[in-house]
Specification:
- The longest helix has 87 residues.
- It contains 4 helices and no strands.
- The chain is rod-shaped and about 150 Å long.
- 84% of the residues lie in helices and 0% in strands.
Length: 161
């Protein structure tokens, strides 16, 4: 014969404990949902950050290209300027030599032209090295000066534009 089975009954939870457990589960579900939402927001923020970084890199490259073009143009303008000014300086050196060969001392030439004595000496030396003779200075200086003066005025107009 078989012995009667005793069924163990599980102790019932009280309603209060059941409700507390249900509330805890609901809180857990809400917290997990909030965590998932935060991760989605962080993922979107990372995507936005990387996209912004790429935009900055593109803008930096465009800026560098533009700067390189402008620097090349600046170098070209400076070279043109140096060429023009070199011609004018040669005319100035010829004029300084003409004043000096007319009987003025280097110091007197410097005072007359409001130049440092060192600059007056350098320009006189430059004119002599370029083969300007006292006879040719008087004949050439006026024409060179006026032509170069027009060139300088043209440079000033270009610079203003």
């Amino acid at each position: 014969m078989s012995e009667p089975r005793t069924v163990r009954s599980r102790a019932r939870r009280s309603t209060r404990v059941s409700q507390q457990l249900a509330r805890a589960r609901e809180r857990n579900i809400r917290q997990l949902a909030e965590i998932r939402e935060q991760e989605v927001r962080v993922d979107q923020a990372l995507h936005d950050y990387v996209a912004a970084t790429e935009q900055i890199a593109v803008a930096d490259r465009a800026c560098e290209e533009k700067v390189a073009q402008l620097e090349a143009r600046i170098s070209q303008v400076r070279a043109e300027h140096e060429g023009r000014v070199g011609d004018v300086r040669a005319a100035q050196a010829s004029a300084v030599l003409a004043i000096h060969t007319a009987g003025r001392t280097v110091k007197q030439v410097a005072e007359l032209l409001e130049l440092p004595v060192k600059t007056a000496r350098q320009w006189i030396g430059q004119a002599r090295r370029e083969g300007v003779t006292p006879a040719s200075v008087g004949a050439e200086t006026g024409a060179i000066t006026y032509r170069n003066l027009a060139s300088v005025r043209g440079m000033e107009r270009e610079a203003r534009q």
